[in-house]
Write a structure and sequence with these properties.
- By secondary structure, the protein is an alpha+beta fold.
- The protein has one domain.
- 28% of the residues lie in helices and 32% in strands.
- The chain contains three helices and five strands.
- Strands 1-5-4-3-2 form a five-stranded antiparallel beta sheet, with helices on one face.
- β4 and β5 form a beta hairpin.
- α1 packs antiparallel against α2.
- The longest helix is centred in the N-terminal third of the chain and has 17 residues.
- The protein is globular, with a radius of gyration of 16 Å.
- The mean pLDDT is 91.
């Protein structure tokens, strides 16, 4: 397990709370906004977890790279696919979110370029309860399978 993954005791998340967390996480992934992820982490008060800061910092680092207000970055599409970790947690399931965007304020044809970014999340659920959550940086691309 890397510093971008944390475990929680099985008692922390009830099955209902797990489903709520997953739905809110999915909604945050559909707009790829940092604020949405920060709200989730605050709502579920995950700050007591030692690796909390590393996980949220990693999410922020990945999401900071795509959006640029000066360039008019505009989210076009978010798609997902299932993969597996190929490094620290070999074989564990990873849900990858891939989003495309354009920079509408650029000129000279650059405003039509479609850029792409992605992030992989790992969720371990036991008996309906979230017990492990994190980011995976080494997974198979859907085109490599």
């Amino acid at each position: 397990m890397s510093a971008t993954t944390f475990k929680v005791s099985q008692e922390y998340f009830t099955p209902e709370k797990t489903q709520e967390f997953l739905l809110e996480h999915e909604a945050a992934c559909q707009n790829m906004e940092i604020v949405a992820f920060l709200k989730i982490f605050q709502k579920y008060d995950l700050s007591f977890i030692k690796e909390y800061q590393e996980v949220i910092t990693a999410i922020i680092d990945i999401l900071t790279g795509w959006k640029n207000e000066k360039k008019g970055s505009e989210l076009k599409k978010v798609s997902t696919y299932n993969s597996n970790c190929i490094f620290c947690e070999i074989g564990k399931s990873v849900k990858v979110y891939r989003w495309t965007y354009t920079n509408t304020f650029e000129e000279g044809g650059k405003e039509r370029i479609i850029y792409e970014s992605q992030i992989g999340f790992r969720f371990e659920i036991k008996e309906g309860r979230l017990t492990e959550y994190g980011i995976c940086n080494a997974y198979l691309d859907k085109d490599e399978k």
